[in-house]
Amino acid sequence: MLAARIGGAHADVSRCIAASLQCQVSCEEGMARRVARGEPLSGEVVRLLRQCAELCELNARALQKESRLARRTASLCFDLANLVARTAWLDAEDRDSYTLARDALQLARACRPLLFA
Fold first, then answer.
1. With CB atoms 3.0 to 4.6 Å apart as the test, which of 41, 52, 60, 82 could cross-link to 27 if both were Cys?
2. Residue 86 has what pLDDT?
3. Residue 8, pLDDT score
4. Can you tell me the distance from the alpha carbon of 104 to that of 78, in angstroms, rounded to the nearest whole number?
5. What is the pLDDT of residues 67-79, one digit of tens each?
């Protein structure tokens, strides 16, 4: 059972999956907003949000499939979500940036029990 392998309870795994999927959506929306405002796809923040969305999707899949790499993807999500939250909070141009920061922090909190249990 995956929960036993990565050191968390089934509820912790479910929370991390749900938070990953929500953060993925928020990162994709944030990326789309920035591109619509004229930022290039190669811009630093747009790249960060793309990486976040892709990693969130990978993490959710790894956890759902009980991959042996799930602990690593959760760890990467924890680190990247903290960076995205900080970037969104410091670069807050509108309410959507605060929503992105909130979702990224929720992901970090949801993945933390899987890493430090």
1. 52
2. 94
3. 56
4. 9
5. 999 999 999 999 9
- Are the C-beta atoms of 100 and 88 separated by less than 8 Å? yes
Closest Cα to residue 84, out of 59, 62, 102? 102
SS3 92: coil
Quote the number of domains for the chain.
1
Contact 27, 53 (CB under 8 A): yes
Sign of the Cα pseudo-torsion (64, 110, 46, 100, in order):
positive
CA angle 25, 29, 33 (to 5 degrees): 170
Write the DSSP string, 21-74: HHHHHHHHHHHHHHHHTT--TTSHHHHHHHHHHHHHHHHHHHHHTT-TTHHHHH
Q: Which domain covers residue 61, as residue numbers?
A: 1-116
